[in-house]
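S.,

As promised, the pyridoxal-5'-phosphate run. Input:
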Amino acid sequence: MIRSNNGYFGEFGGRFVPEILLPALTELEELFFELRDDPAFWQEYLTLTQEFSGRPTPLTPLRRLSEQLGGAQIWLKREDLNHSGAHKINNVLGQGLLVQRMGKKRVIAETGAGQHGLATAIMSAKLGLDATIYMGADDIERQYSNVFWMRQLGANVVGVETGSRTLKEALDEALRDWAASVETTHYVLGTACGPAPFPELVSYFQSVISQEIKQQSMTQIGKLPDEVVACVGGGSNAMGAFSAFLDDSEVKLVGIEAGGLSLEDGQHSVRLLKGTGEPGIAQGYKTLFLQNDDGQLGETHSIAAGLDYVGVSPILAHLSQTGRVTPDSSSDTEVTDAFQLLMKTEGIIPAMESAHALAGGFKRAKTMNKNQHMVINLSGRGDKDIFNIARAFPQRDWTEFLQREAERSTDQINAHLATELAG
Amino acid sequence: MIRSNNGYFGEFGGRFVPEILLPALTELEELFFELRDDPAFWQEYLTLTQEFSGRPTPLTPLRRLSEQLGGAQIWLKREDLNHSGAHKINNVLGQGLLVQRMGKKRVIAETGAGQHGLATAIMSAKLGLDATIYMGADDIERQYSNVFWMRQLGANVVGVETGSRTLKEALDEALRDWAASVETTHYVLGTACGPAPFPELVSYFQSVISQEIKQQSMTQIGKLPDEVVACVGGGSNAMGAFSAFLDDSEVKLVGIEAGGLSLEDGQHSVRLLKGTGEPGIAQGYKTLFLQNDDGQLGETHSIAAGLDYVGVSPILAHLSQTGRVTPDSSSDTEVTDAFQLLMKTEGIIPAMESAHALAGGFKRAKTMNKNQHMVINLSGRGDKDIFNIARAFPQRDWTEFLQREAERSTDQINAHLATELAG
Amino acid sequence: MFPKQNDALQVMSHAVIGFPNLAENEKAIDGLVAAGVNLIELQVPFSDPVADGHTLANACYDALKQGGSVQATLDLAEKVCANHPDVNFILMSYLNPLYRYGLQALFDKAAAVGIKGLIIPDWPVEEVEPWLPTFDDLDLSPIMMVTPNTPAKRVERIVNASRGMVYVVSRMGVTGHETEWGEAFEAYLKNIRVYTDLPLAVGFGVRSSDDLNAITGKAEVAAFCSKYIEWQRHDGSDIAAEKMKTMIGEMKH
Amino acid sequence: MFPKQNDALQVMSHAVIGFPNLAENEKAIDGLVAAGVNLIELQVPFSDPVADGHTLANACYDALKQGGSVQATLDLAEKVCANHPDVNFILMSYLNPLYRYGLQALFDKAAAVGIKGLIIPDWPVEEVEPWLPTFDDLDLSPIMMVTPNTPAKRVERIVNASRGMVYVVSRMGVTGHETEWGEAFEAYLKNIRVYTDLPLAVGFGVRSSDDLNAITGKAEVAAFCSKYIEWQRHDGSDIAAEKMKTMIGEMKH
Ligand SMILES: Cc1ncc(COP(=O)(O)O)c(C=O)c1O
Ligand SMILES: Cc1ncc(COP(=O)(O)O)c(C=O)c1O
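Predicted complex:
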């Protein structure tokens, strides 16, 4: 596992937050440093993820697809099979253990795709905590099903109406809440970003992914994979998939960012490639941010709400500077193609985020030979994104169904009101 | 594992199909009888479910909820964590292995909740088979998201407009297709019903559930559970959860049917309780059917599309006659209460079908003591049922979202059309 | 009386009891008899008619709403058997309505009212065999079905359990679609004749004079059912009977 | 000049550069000075103002659309420092815009145009300390923030890195909400005085004459910012200045 140098990874990382948040970060860091080398704590964490979330998740060979592409043997690490449908729950369950030890009774979280918010709402229900989830108003529309479930689970979902109304603003707003509530509230940061110790802490919990990949590769492939590929939003699933391989220089690590519509400003969320992100300090940490010359954070776009973020894990910023991680990107159309290819050839419905890793991975796999092995981290499942995916593949029968359902739902609400008025 | 006596379980079972279907059933039975005692075949099946679907699924302790109810310690068998979100995939993967051995290239299936259809579409994509799924037109509306995914996966979903437009008619229609296509097509029956060998064959594959429960109980509880509770639609998840315990008389086996709105005709889908189902012969087999004095199959109702079926596994009909399985039922309102209780106390979103087992199990658990252990089979997850569950818990913001989404979707389709016309 | 082997082709036709309604069934049957039909299936409507295509399935659903039932079928049978003593009426039903009525009671009653044969598509030969002595006692003929994919050994078993005639399902599938009557079909019939001297009734896909002509000389009976029910639905029972008469008149002999 | 310990309470107020627009900033500042304000924060608008409540955050978003930037802030500072040599102008900014400009260049330039102090809410003391020699050379005062939950040892470290005054965050949370000024607040200030003789500027939740009166005698500076920006937004800069004048006139001394 990578360790920070006093919160820094090379030139990136650090802890740039309003003074009021420092004690909580220090408390968290002390607790984390105390626990992370304690094998009993790791075992407690593993047991929780096993009992509750079904870990270890399998490593699935894509036999038909690999054959069809004609290159490397492709394997999927199945984080989509986690409870709640994505890798995000790993981190959240780990932080849940910390919250219990700190004795806090309330948590807050920011969420983009809603996946981290959903995981947080789940953990909060399980542990009996109050949860408030901040989510950009535009993301709420994009990922309404997750919002629906968060609310059903008892979480308070707050739509953030400022700025571009996506993840960046949700994170700002969560920090504002935290500034007022820090003594009783834990901030469950959802990715390997933000002020120290979050990048390190989130990567620590997510590293369970690569520890399993390593073991499974030895058993199922008989050796380490040649490449491990993951999509990069904030960077938590990528750090999860990469961590255990950092010292295995024969394993190439590839992070795929959201190439969006084009590499024009505002049309993508690529931060690690030349000419995209620039060093900056915001949202509590230093990393490569999409920003203008005045240091204002930029607009982003991705077909996947969970990749639509202006910053990136300082650890990945560092590792791509050192060359250990190879950054690449996939465009929206490459992503929808890969989405359909996986679905129709292997019967697995990927999250749009994960479909970026697929698109990037498939392209590379074709250039590899049949004796090589590639593991792609399938960070989440796509069936949670039905509205989103229906938008990517417009079909008349879906539209018509929505119209009928909207009518039925309106009738039902009206009937409900009528009963209440009468009663 | 229970074995039929020439296709019969006590007085139930058999094979009452048009002559044209007999050769295929015989072929299937012969293949099945040849394989089921072959440990290598079982291992092949286990490996497939492990690699592709994440088996074994965990046994999750419900600590907060058990404490709150104040009775037995409750554990959930997490079939919801299967790939595709329900136990249905177990059976389908098993049948997939048989299809490969038979060399058939096309499969058909009936589906109620859409869950079995989805599993079949997934298996077909994975194995490169053509799939046609028959689904009652009313069920299509109730479970549209599953239809959406089946189509995305490349399956041909055929809405059945006859009769009550639900599972029963879908099964009839699938049998009609099969009569015409039986030489090249395998009928992937979705539950432990239908003509021999299906009840036995489906139970065989689903028995992986109880084999795991048994092992996990010994490890996690230290002894066998006192009760195992499962919902009963066709009976496959119940047979899955019960099979390995049939000879352990100290383990009580409880099957929960859909009590619906009331026990009046047409308002429920209870077949195993006195005064509900009567012996009958239809849809290829003999069992307890909801029917009138003229032998016409009856109307059913359940809040859960997957339990809304007029017949029941002949094995369960037999086992409830012998007293080995205790039948019970939960009403729609008990079910929605249990649904919410699990969600808000343990952070797990159950399928509406599975919430019947919860409702029935929770009621019984309260009367048990703290040293007793109950395993409830959580046959599926609920997030696939968002439309359905939104209907059960009407909320204005969902209605409004649907209206906006329907408008957006219409605009998108129109824009799409405009581009095509222009292009 | 059932035909004998090598008799000229006869048309068997159909009534779904309760379709279009109970009152009309009797009139329609009179019309069929007047048109020259001597073999008539009286189908008990069923909620789940899995061997039938959409024409007969929809007729079943409608018939049930009109009060079609086992009892209504027996009542009608009693009348029409009395009115048309030269016509063979065959009870056609899925098993469950009969099973609920009580099989022994049903068979007794059916024989008593004058029913001559039984067609029960979801009742396999293994389950029928124990009832053969009863049927023979009652002079009630189980007309068993053979299908193109039935293995030779099983054909033998089925025809041995059949009485009166053997129902030859012309092709894969359910009722109500078209069939090709080529050499494969002739070979299929020949293989059945190896095991039986009973007359053969060909069903599924007999929908036109051309079909009848194609079967002439190959089998003794042609079941002209779905198409007749379509006529009944679209044109009413009177015109359906006229069309039947015209068609039978056009048959080669 | 910054006040000295135990000087009478002074009001510090605020401009967000570009809000409501660049032209109006200068006029608004003239108004503040005329109203008797001697300490004015010039806030560089930022896309992600995490320490600010909605009033200032929205002002930032609007200001950015009007061309607010680091450069615009320096340009304005140059003018207003020249026009109002007796007023202390303090550059308030989140770190990133300054970092992108280049910290050394920015500090040089700020000092050169007459800026006296710096408030950078997301720049922790550990990162500030290495710059203290530079600041002292430039006579640029880093005004560091202490918060109610800052541990004693860290208060000491922060005030030691502060120059000119110490910014005392009155309560948990962000700018723009109300605060209670009870005994706990006094004890809090007393604890800070243990470590420093610098004047204390109280910020967050100073929204009325009553608030000012409650602070009088306890601290030397009251930051009256969000509320002033609200006035500016709703009433325009002129009326906002008048209100400020009235309020300062009502202050107890
Ligand atoms: C399924 C899935 N994959 C990937 C991501 C991107 O986040 P990260 O880069 O932290 O893994 C998200 C974020 O919501 C997600 O939901
Ligand atoms: C989640 C779930 N549970 C239970 C059932 C009921 O079927 P069975 O009784 O065969 O388990 C279904 C059927 O679709 C289902 O989807």
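Residues B 86, 88, 112-113, 115-116, 191, 231-238, 306-307, 351, 353-354, 379-380 surround pyridoxal-5'-phosphate (ligand 2) (CB under 6 Å). Chain C has one domain: 10-249.

- D.
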